[in-house]
Amino acid sequence: MSEFTTVKYKDKKTTFEILCKPSTVLKYREGEIGIDKVLFADTVFKNYSKGEKPLKSELLDAFGTDNESQVIKTILDKGEYNLSTAERKEKVEKKRKEMVSYIHKYYTDPRTKTTHPVTRIESALSEIKLNIDPDTPAELQVNKIYSTLIEKLPLKKSEVEATVTIKHAFLGQTNAVIQKFCKIQRDNYTNEGREMLVTMVPGDYDVFTQELHKITKGDYEINITGAGAMMASTDEPATQKGKGGRGGKGKKK
After folding, report:
1. What spans are recorded as compositionally biased (Basic residues) (predicted)?
2. Same domain, 151 and 163
């Protein structure tokens, strides 16, 4: 293994280089380590192999400053470098997990109107021998493989519709949770509280009801339109318990 990795930043016709310790740039960019753990040398080069360093005027023209510490940070944040085999493998695995999470969150099984278990989604992606691009957004890659994936895993992009009733005592505390996970289609205030017709993506249902339960101690009501309880992120379906349980009263229409 080389004792350092070169990170290059090109501005117009001038290329600037810094030297970093192997397998540290990705960790730095993902917030795992600080800049002090990354740099092999705190010097900016134009061409390290020739020992060429930039003029101050070149730094000012490219970065708006000749402060070498600021220039190094810009190069480290925005420059290009070659991933090591281990780094690329790590990025690919992270992107795979993002794709699994995206499918679980936004798609249901049209036969059961529930989300597929995470393990089933992972298995389907493995079966189609997916070539994952670590730098392309998960949504775009899922859209690209959709026609192939549905041969292994029936999918339908859909939303859950439900009526949520919250008592007056919890309105202020639950408002942020409702805004985070739901789109409010209809809103009505009654003597007992607030009744809302909402829609949400399937994968948010379980977390949403858990958050409501924390605030209300289960003293709320949710009625799912048409379908049964959403599937939890494990292989077991999320059950709809009575008052005080995870899903509030959890009645179905």
Report:
1. 243-253
2. no
3-state secondary structure of 129: coil
Sign for the CA dihedral angle at 93, 94, 95, 97 comes to positive
The verdict on 90 and 55 lying in the same domain is: no
Whether 147 and 57 map to the same domain: the answer is no
User: C-alpha 204: how far from its chain's center?
Assistant: 13
Torsion-angle region of 247 (φ positive above 0: left; ψ -120 to 50: alpha; else: beta) = alpha
The pLDDT tens digits along the chain (253 residues) read 578 999 999 998 899 999 999 989 989 998 999 999 999 999 999 999 999 999 999 999 999 999 999 999 999 999 999 888 888 898 999 999 999 999 998 898 988 878 899 999 999 999 998 889 998 999 999 999 999 999 999 998 888 889 999 999 999 999 999 999 999 999 999 999 999 999 998 888 889 999 999 999 999 999 987 644 443 333 333 333 334 333 445 444 4
The Cα–Cα gap between 223 and 230 comes to: 12
Domain boundary residue, one of 63, 78, 93: 78
Number of domains in the chain: 3
| β-pairing verdict for 160-167 and 220-224 | antiparallel
Q: Are 188 and 226 part of one and the same domain?
A: yes
207 lies in which domain range? 159-253
Q: Within this chain, do residues 175 and 105 fall inside the same structural domain, yes or no?
A: no
Task: Note whether 196 and 240 are same-domain residues.
Answer: yes
pTM exceeds 0.90, yes or no: no
